[in-house]
Amino acid sequence: MRAVVQRVMQASVSVGDELVSSIGRGLCVLIGVSRDDSPKDMEYIVRKILNLRVFDDDQEKRWAHSVKDKNYEILCVSQFTLYCVLKGNKPDFHQSMAAEQSQAFYEEFLQQMRKAYQPDKIKDGRFGAYMQVSIQNDGPVTVQLESPVQQQKSKPEKTKAARQQKWEKKAGAGTAQEPATAQEPVDVKMEQVTEQLSQTSTT
Question: pTM of the prediction?
């Protein structure tokens, strides 16, 4: 799950000529849901959004308060394009969760946000609609969040096959012969002992 969090002076969402939602000072959050997201991803993103310290305190100390501390509003906007990958110059969205599933997931996300904060402070766009989003970014301040599960999946896994390939590459450079070299002195000593025993038995 991904979230692009923007500190705003004001933000709004319209569909055509209809104003759907608007907020004053607070956060505008674009939310992307991947096909592999789980409740753990949702829990992480909810917690981070609500506790992210991007606001000044009364003494103008920077990065001191969260949106909850300031009692500000949050405008959430579903944004499947956050999981865009490029095929040449064309965007591809196959990593995004399918529309029907993602709508249920996104609505549950909103419920969790309202449960963890104040319900009337959480505003929303219109899922699946062609929206016009107006954002007056304050700063500007923009923070990108990604749930740890997705971060882990984005890293290349060190599989057994990968480790074996790495070892074979080293072997090609000659380092694979080290274990055999370390064993040679033992083999030499055993040959010497065997030879001495043979000489003793013949005498």
Answer: 0.73
